Amino acid sequence: ALFLYWIMAFVTKTIKLVRYCQDGVPFSQLRFCITGIMVILYGLLMAVEVNVIRVRRYVFFMNPQKVKPPEDLQDLGVRFLQPFVNLLSKATYWWMNTLIISAHKKPVDLKAIGKLPIAMRALTNYVCLKEAYEEQKKKVAEQPNRSPSIWLAMYSAFGRPILLSSTFRYLADLLGFAGPLCISGIVQGFQNTTNNTNTTEKVKDPSNSYLSSEEFLRNVYVLAVLLFLALILQRTFLQASYYVTTETGINLRGAL
């Protein structure tokens, strides 16, 4: 059902975008930009659904792949659910509400915290680092002048979360420019409003019912909302970067 919905939404938005092109609506119009973004978004969601059907081999396949829940979720002693919750819960740590509420009532002990997931245990990370180091030894086995690099082994085992943490930090730093730009636009918008009260304002052509992206971004209320969202996203990306960095550091230390 969800796959059919993405197909219908993608086709509908594509027809709407083609109609805008036939009517000669320029790219600078807000409605054209929003429709183009929706076409790309629905196309990506449809591609994700197609990939899930291909990997799981269901709907059109005779022998679907059986999906078992992770072993950590089957263990009632594991209460650290960060790797298994959805994206919104990961960003807001909503899954920790039960632990936080219980911590307000009484002191938290190790039994309430529970066990660590398998992927975060020292033995698991040690095996992962050892396998990466063994791969390095195989690569340099035919080269007697070279020795296996522990740095390359650590990068091979833990490089992906390090790159993810760096990406989150770069995004947070880029969003730091949104604040001054929005504030500058808000101040300029109020100045233009004050100046327009003393001059004759230009009458807009009623035949042109489309709002341009430039006019939309000049609105002070829109800039205020964008400033609020930019600050929330900046703090979210910073928190995600700190969390991934701390978790990777703990896993690497446990592996060593």
Which helices and strands appear, and what pairs or packs with what?
Layout: H1 2-22, H2 30-56, H3 71-74, H4 87-92, H5 97-105, H6 110-113, H7 122-139, H8 150-175, H9 178-197, H10 213-218, H11 220-255
GO cellular component, one term: membrane
GO molecular function: ATP binding; ATPase-coupled transmembrane transporter activity; sulfonylurea receptor activity
Keywords: ATP-binding, Glycoprotein, Membrane, Nucleotide-binding, Repeat, Transmembrane, Transmembrane helix
Sum this structure up briefly.
The chain is mainly α. The chain contains eleven helices and no strands.
Structure keywords:
single chain; mainly alpha
Head-to-tail CA distance between termini:
48 Å
Q: What portion of residues is helical?
A: 55-70%
Shape: extended
Instruction: Flag low-confidence runs.
Output: none
Structural category: mainly alpha
Mean pLDDT: 83
Annotation field: number of helices: 11
As a whole number of angstroms, the C-alpha radius of gyration is 26 Å
Count of domains:
3
Run of helices and strands: HHHHHHHHHHH
Give a short account of the largest sheet: none
- Approximately how much beta-strand content do the residues carry? under 5%
Q: How many E strands?
A: 0
